[in-house]
């Protein structure tokens, strides 16, 4: 009986370790805002979650170029899969896999760096 109990506890512990971590709600919402803004070439929406340095870096020209490149694939549909977070001193960087519905579009990686509750960095690779 003791062996069965120990085996059961070990199995439960191993299973809990393999359950996918969920993205924090605020950061997931911030990512959604940035992705929607990118897809729709909406600088104002993009800047709504950014810190001052990101606002200065993101221009109409930059977002238009990124949107032109990614919007067609994004409009076909995709799923965001949270992969994890790295602590980077005062900031945290969150990672999501973008799994596109179209077989012709390769997966991409969305990287969101957050500091003081604002987007301090955002990349789609």
Reconstruct the topology from this structure.
Elements: H1 2-18, H2 25-39, H3 43-47, H4 52-57, H5 60-75, E1 78-88, E2 91-100, E3 108-115, E4 118-124
Antiparallel strand pairs: 1-2, 2-3, 3-4
Which percent band covers the strand fraction? 25-35%
Under CATH, the topology can be stated as Nuclear Transport Factor 2, Chain: A
> In order across it, which strands form the biggest sheet?
1-2-3-4
Question: What is the CATH domain class?
Answer: Alpha Beta
The shape is globular
Structural class: alpha+beta
Keywords:
125 residues, alpha+beta, Nuclear Transport Factor 2, Chain: A, 5 helices, 4 strands, 47% helix
What would your notes on this structure say?
The chain is of the alpha+beta class. The chain has one domain: Roll (Nuclear Transport Factor 2, Chain: A), CATH 3.10.450.590. Helices cover 47% and strands 29% of the residues. It has five helices and four strands; from the N terminus they run H-H-H-H-H-E-E-E-E. Strands 1-2-3-4 form a four-stranded antiparallel beta sheet. The longest helix is centred in the N-terminal third of the chain and has 17 residues. It is globular and about 40 Å long.
């Amino acid at each position: 009986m003791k062996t069965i109990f120990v085996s059961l506890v070990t199995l439960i512990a191993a299973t809990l370790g393999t359950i996918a971590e969920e993205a924090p709600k605020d950061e997931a919402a911030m990512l959604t805002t940035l992705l929607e803004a990118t897809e729709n070439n909406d600088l104002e929406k993009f800047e709504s979650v950014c810190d001052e340095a990101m606002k200065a870096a993101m221009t109409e020209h930059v977002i238009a170029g990124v949107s032109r490149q990614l919007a067609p694939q994004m409009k076909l549909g995709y799923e965001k899969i949270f992969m994890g977070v790295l602590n980077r001193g005062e900031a945290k960087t969150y990672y999501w896999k973008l799994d596109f519905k179209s077989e012709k579009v390769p997966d991409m990686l969305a990287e969101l760096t957050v500091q003081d509750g604002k987007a301090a960095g955002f990349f789609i690779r």
